[in-house]
Design brief:
Mean pLDDT: 86
Order of helices and strands: HEEEEEEEE
Number of helices: 1
Strand order of the largest sheet: 3-2-1-5
Low-confidence stretches: none
Largest sheet: 4 strands, antiparallel
Length: 173
């Protein structure tokens, strides 16, 4: 009697199966890239706005610490912008510019384009009342994502977004 030969089971994938899996992964990645790029751009924009917010808070702390007003003056020219934080004696405490950022525009929502911080409670002089007010907005091109800086109660500063990016509150109208 002939001994039964053991059956060989082939384990593994065929080339066709591997190519189908690679093609499916490529389609999924191509669909995800635009939203991933938008996410990266929104995070970059929020980080940039957060830097401006931190500088405004720094100006508030300097005004309170020194007991003298601090002025933040903004200059915009198309897609480039700068701001300078100046003490009451004229010394420049800090400057920042958009030279290291691509395709961002800063728009002031208050006139003149400056923010004066009083030493008492770090309040912003240019604000008329205690309602939530948009101070400035930063917009990226070409996607037109926008993040704004608001002031509430003349001293509480925060971030906002018209499109409510990444959980930010909506900007006041």
């Amino acid at each position: 009697m002939m001994a039964d030969r053991p059956t060989h089971q082939h384990r593994g994938f065929t080339l066709v199966e591997l190519m189908v899996v690679v093609a499916i992964l490529a389609i999924i990645l191509l669909a995800a890239i635009p939203s991933f790029q938008r996410w990266i751009e929104s995070r970059r924009l929020i980080g940039l706005a957060d830097n401006v917010l931190n500088d405004l808070r720094y100006a508030q702390s300097e005004a309170i610490k020194t007991g003298t007003p601090v002025v933040i003056t903004f200059h915009t020219d198309g897609n480039t912008w700068t701001y300078r934080i100046t003490a009451a004696n004229g010394d420049t405490l800090r400057t920042n510019s958009s030279e290291n950022t691509r395709n961002t525009a800063l728009t002031m929502a208050i006139t003149p384009p400056k923010v004066t911080i009083e030493p008492k409670r770090g309040t912003i002089v240019e604000l008329v009342d205690d309602s939530r007010t948009l101070i400035l907005s930063i917009t990226t091109a070409p996607s037109n994502l926008t993040v704004g800086l608001t002031a509430e109660s003349k001293s509480k500063i925060g971030l906002c977004s018209p499109a409510q990016l990444q959980g930010l509150d909506a900007c006041p109208q």
